[in-house]
Amino acid sequence: MPNGRESLLNRVIERLRYLPGIGQKTAQRLAFHLLKMPDQDVRELVRAISEVKEHLHFCTACENLTESPQCFICLDPKRDRSKILVVEEPSTLYAMERTGEYRGLYHVLHGSLSPLDGRGPADLRIQGLLDRIKQGEVKEVIMATNPTIEGEATAIYLGRILRPLGVYVTRIAYGIPVGIDLEYADEVTLLKSLEGRREL
């Protein structure tokens, strides 16, 4: 029968397994590493995680994560406001930013259409994108949803509702292998995909 300490350790291991890409062995390694860390470092890690959950929220314009009402990208006056690149998750936005080449704005959907999982248009952050386009400044919307069945379905759906609003709708090129999430692609692949975008 496990003692109290083993139960606590198992609880930490199980919680770590909730993180994406973390299996049983990696969760065990992380748990044992946490036990070896100085108490102050563990407290700072716990505080940082708690503060992220408490203080981060979504940008009122693009739905990116931010501590302010609007994110640093939306507040940057040097950004090209005639272009919006649509991504599924904030992590993809940051991957695109690492290329250093895209200077337009973004819109984060926080997911993709997936009828099998019960995710429809109402579950995505689409209305804010429509509102921004109706203001008239946006000329091109670039679809950078993941190259998956769900990502493609999302891009096609958005293309159908955006075209009547008078914007040029493009899709990033498939320099990215089908079936992977954009956040894991390297900067060169992302840049080539962005440069080779096509009309949707």
Task: Write a concise keyword list for the protein shown above.
2 domains; two-stranded antiparallel ribbon; five-stranded mixed β-sheet; Dna Topoisomerase Vi A Subunit, Chain: A, domain 2; 8 helices; 14% strand; Helicase, Ruva Protein, domain 3; 7 strands; elongated; 200 residues; alpha/beta
Would you write up a description of this structure?
This protein is 43% helix and 14% strand. It has a 5-stranded mixed sheet with strand order 4-3-5-6-7. A two-stranded antiparallel ribbon has the order 1-2. The longest helix is centred in the N-terminal third of the chain and has 17 residues, at 39-55. It has 200 residues and is of the alpha/beta class. It folds into 2 domains: 4-55, RecR Domain 1 (Helicase, Ruva Protein, domain 3); 58-199, Dna Topoisomerase Vi A Subunit, Chain: A, domain 2. Helix 1 (4-16) packs across helix 2. The mean pLDDT is 90. The protein has helices at 4-16, 24-36, 39-55, 72-75, 90-97, 127-134, 149-162, 187-195; strands at residues 57-58, 65-66, 80-87, 104-108, 140-143, 168-171, 198-199. The radius of gyration is 20 Å and the shape is elongated. Helix 7 links the parallel strand 5 (140-143) and strand 6 (168-171).
Helix and strand arrangement:
Layout: H1 4-16, H2 24-36, H3 39-55, E1 57-58, E2 65-66, H4 72-75, E3 80-87, H5 90-97, E4 104-108, H6 127-134, E5 140-143, H7 149-162, E6 168-171, H8 187-195, E7 198-199
Parallel strand pairs: 3-4, 3-5, 5-6
Antiparallel strand pairs: 1-2, 6-7
